[in-house]
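Continuing the series of single-chain predictions for the mutant panel. This is the parent chain; the variants come on the following pages.
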Amino acid sequence: MIIDCRCRPPTKEFVKVHKGALFQDVHSRLSKFPVPRALAEESMDMFWQEMDEAGVEKAVVQARYMPSAGTVTNDVVAELVRKYPDEIIGIAAVDVNIPLGEAEKEIQRAVGKLGLKGLSLEPTAAGSPMGFDDHRLNGLYGKCEALGIPVFLTTGPIIGRTLTDTAPSHIEQVVMQFPKLRLVLAHGCYPYVLETIALAVRYKTVYLSPDLYTFLPGGNMYLEAANNVLKDQFVFGSAYPFVPLKESVDLVKGFPFAAGIRDKVLYKTAQTLLGA
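Parent structure:
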């Protein structure tokens, strides 16, 4: 079994995002792979074929509010889950710039009514950007901690106002204030690879999902850490359609993990994290 913790299928909403200028620019600079056929042809049927070929059984699909790239709402993701309950796990998102009370109500609705399994936050790319440790986010972190759901933070060198926005020291401040909150660091805070590994070593509530950055220089260290000190804090993600599903899976399957760890990386840790 394989659970892909960062995957965006070619629905009309995601196609609009991923055929936009921002995606095209990032893809041209960071990915060594061609755009998957399912996106190019805007075909959900082809996407299911790509999942089957890669052996991916469940895709974790995250809503998003990013003015520079586009919006995919919680209701859109919830509808995907309703249509494909055995294949899709939905993650909510909120606009961090709306009043706190409204954002908390939306989280409650997304989890309680729509059945989504976590929250995705991208504050450094908001309309009015803020750091991960900005005090205005505390109410959202506290809400998720109280609900017992994980928070997926989109990190990496592209999404911040400056490169240092993604430094793990900002995330450590969040962990210290909310010690029971589970945080999944999408893109692994690249390029701060060693510092991020150290952060997860220090705090058991921090999970790494470096996805496409595993293919970049230094990214192999993420897998080395997953093979020992972070064997229970690493979840597989492809960042599809930045990276095709099969190539992402093949990278992990080809790594010489110790006995039992590959299954943790590919699905067991995600099952526990998301109750999947």
